[in-house]
Structures are given as C-alpha cells and as structure tokens.
Amino acid sequence: MEELAPIASLQSLVLDLPPSCAEFCPAHPEYLVAGTYNLQKDDTEPAPAQEGDQNDDSAAPKPQNRNGSLIVLKVEGDDV
C-alpha cells in the first residue's frame, strides 16, 4: 500500500473566533466560506438563596449568549 505524504500549509489565517466549518461554493469553487461560532461563558455567580425561597428545579435555564461570523475568502492558486 502506498504511503500518503503529509500535507504542508502554504498560508495560514488567524480568525477572531474559533472556526466551526468551511465550505467551498460549488458554483464558484474559487470561493471558500469559513464560519466561526462562540458560546460566551457566563462568569456571574447565581445570587444566594433568600430565606423562604423555594428551590424550584423546574425553573427555565438562563439563555447563553453566542456569536459568530461568516468570512468569504477567494482562493487564487496558492494565494488566499
């Protein structure tokens, strides 16, 4: 069986957020769309329970903030 050669990077790009997907456009294969996604961590601590408060486990969870972006790149030969 033939061994495959490792792939070498020709160019790299640092994004503001972690990449989550990349897709080439079938109609225009020179275009690449990279998607980023970030779930923001909630650093606040819950307030301490007050006397007389009931512990309600069925309370709705606090929604988390998330953000992301789509970056369109044009690939021309070895250049992005």
Protein traits:
3 strands, elongated, 0% helix, 3-stranded antiparallel sheet, 80 residues, mainly beta
Give the % helix: under 10%
User: What is the H/E string?
Assistant: EEE
Oligomeric state as shown: single chain
Strand neighbour order, sheet with most strands: 1-2-3
Radius of gyration: 22 Å
Region (Disordered): 39-80
Please outline the helices and strands:
Elements lengths: L18 E6 L6 E9 L26 E9 L6
Antiparallel strand pairs: 1-2, 2-3
Describe the model.
By secondary structure, the chain is mainly β. The chain has a domain at 18-39 and 66-80. It has no helices and three strands. It has strands at 19-24, 31-39, 66-74. The model has no long low-confidence stretch (mean pLDDT 83). Residues 39-80 are annotated as: Disordered.
What would you say about this model in short?
0% of the residues lie in helices and 30% in strands. By secondary structure, the chain is mostly beta strands. The chain has a 3-stranded antiparallel β-sheet, with no helix packed on it.
